[in-house]
Amino acid sequence: MNKRKTRLLTILFVLMAISTLVSGCMESSSTSQSPHTQDAAETITVIDALGRTVEVPKSPEHVICSGSGALRYLTYLEAQDKIVAVDSIETQESKFDARPYALANPQFMEYPVFGEFRGNDNPEKILTLDPQPQVIFKMYSTSGYDPAELQKKTGIPVIALNYGDMVNNRADMYQSLRTMGEVMGTEDRAEDVISFFDAAISDLNERTADVQEEEKTTCYVGGIALSGPHGFQSTEPTYPPFFFTNAKNVAYDPKNLTTAEVSKESILGWDPEIIFVDLSTTQSEDKSSALYQLQNDVSYRKLTAVKNGEVYGVLPYNWYTQNQGSVLADAYFAGKLLYPEKFEDVDLEDKTIEIYTFLVGRGDEEVGRQVYGEMINAFSIPAFTKLEI
């Protein structure tokens, strides 16, 4: 009886030991996996540009960018490797391209296409992507596919953003960068980008703020691009390179905040001392080119700037909406021409490379230099040179 009881106790002891060991292993396994489970389930809530409350995964690994400029901002935040597809403009072969973010990332052309450019998304294509995007960033939400409808059809959170601009809607631009940064976990980089813009704009302003109005050289920019090339009468009344350098823009109009067509009579009456030409106009190889008009219109040949040979080509920056790096490069070029003594310490090539290196080159100067070279020579005439009229 005692032997039987001893054997029973031994068996019970062994079973309890095995049970404890198995339980411990399961608990250990569960504990080791729990951080990953928590990470996968962790979400944040953001308010998008339409005032919608959108819940998204924290620091998603897979996203897409819809609409003009959305992928540019993701590139500024150095998070472009998180995309799983692109809109159609990124894969189009083109004779001309003035988008520094795309020039710095030729791999964009190899991605699958989820929809047409300018936000004309294809929900069916999005649902076939592998891996599936966890978040869709959508710029210019009033054009293309409606954000709420896109979210409903795909089941993927859609964050609407306002692109903004560098003069009149800078707060919108900064808010979009911050919202994107919050979602992607790149808040520090977003603040660095914002500080970079603020520092450059402050530098341009401080160099020129004390120049008396009567000492300023009058100037005009023609051929401003807007959804394609335009002629000499296309200008921008609040042209940022002039605005940041306190230049005497003869077409300035604080009530007109967008690209405008001005009359030939107005230009002749203003008679600017220096003329800048947006080189995107050279895409038009006919009489609609600003360069052709300056060379062949008898009225324009009477302009002071034309007679004195003071006509210069600048980088286009309205290319799939505003390329802010090119805005700053144009501003430093304008500053050097309009106020040579104020910018004598600025080497324009070095400054432009620095801008592109920071914004789209991930700090790699070789990438910045390559983008600079491609941008300067993107058209039949090099940018930042005197034009033959």
Commentary on this structure:
This protein has 14 helices and 14 strands. The chain is an alpha/beta fold. The chain folds into two domains: 143 residues, Rossmann fold (3-Layer(aba) Sandwich), CATH 3.40.50.1980; 165 residues, Rossmann fold, CATH 3.40.50.1980. Strands 11-9-13-14 form a four-stranded parallel β-sheet. Helix 7 packs parallel to helix 12 and helix 13 crosses helix 14. The chain is globular and about 65 Å long. The termini are far apart. The N terminus is likely disordered.
Q: What fold name goes in the CATH topology slot of the largest domain?
A: Rossmann fold
Name the CATH superfamily assignment of the largest domain: Nitrogenase molybdenum iron protein domain
Computed over alpha carbons, the radius of gyration is: 28 Å
Please identify the top-level CATH class of the largest domain: Alpha Beta
Describe, in short, the structure shown.
The chain has 389 residues and is α/β, with parallel strands linked by helices.
